[in-house]
Amino acid sequence: MVPLIDERPLRYQDWVAKRREVVRELSGGHCGYLHIPDMGGSGWAQFNRDLRMEVSRPALIVDVRGNAGGHISELVVEKLTRKILGWDLTRDAQPVSYASNAPRGPVVALADEATASDGDMITAAFKLLKLGPVVGQRTWGGVVGMTGRHRLGDGTVITVPMNAAWFEEYGWSIENHGVAPDLEILRTPLDWAEGRHAQMDDAIQLAQDLLRTHPAATPPDHHDVPVHTRPKLPPRR
């Protein structure tokens, strides 16, 4: 046994692994699953830890439910907007897409009322860039940020709003309202109690429907590989 100061990281990884098992089962192995807990260092690490394996599936579920916000949503968006233009085929190895670690097919996002701050912003980016549909609930709606805390004479602390976010199509309206999903699905307390995966079920079904009309990119076969052997020499005279 290894003593731990905090067991929450282990419990979180167990939670992600169980959600991934659900996605594999419900999709027949066709969907990868990424959960991004926040838009800070831990969320960026979690995203990159799982990215390579999960984007190798035909479709991808990106779960930002409960995302606590941060400041690296742009980096996540840069990864998810990569397009497969070709393949690098190496002898005795699996084909690697070019660009690497790019989604192979449809991407569906999951968001809810606890998707906050930079989580609001990546949900907006998903919709504005048409990365894929968003399933779940309207996000939290808090994109005005503050920097630092100011202690008053009586010992209380105040914060001052320092920055706000404006988006094309949304303007200033994300603050105090959030980003509405394309497909609104509520996971009720009864769903939780009875082990039903509302929202996830719908996201997977949507991804599979999209796969029928937008098939995943696949590496080429070898039937038309050019032959580069040395040409036959002419007869000697």
Automatic annotation (TrEMBL):
GO cellular component: cytoplasm
SMART domains: TSPc
GO biological process entries: proteolysis
Places the protein is found: Cytoplasm
Sequence ranges assigned to domain Tail specific protease in this UniProt record: 1-186
GO MF: serine-type peptidase activity
Span list, region Disordered: 214-237
Keywords recorded for this protein, A-Z: Cytoplasm, Hydrolase, Protease, Serine protease
UniProt xrefs under Pfam families: Peptidase_S41 (PF03572)
Cross-referenced InterPro entries: ClpP/crotonase-like_dom_sf, Tail-specific_protease, Tricorn_protease
Principal place of residence: cytoplasm
Similarity comment text for this entry: Belongs to the peptidase S41B family.
Name by which UniProt lists this protein: Tail specific protease domain-containing protein
Native source species: Streptomyces avermitilis
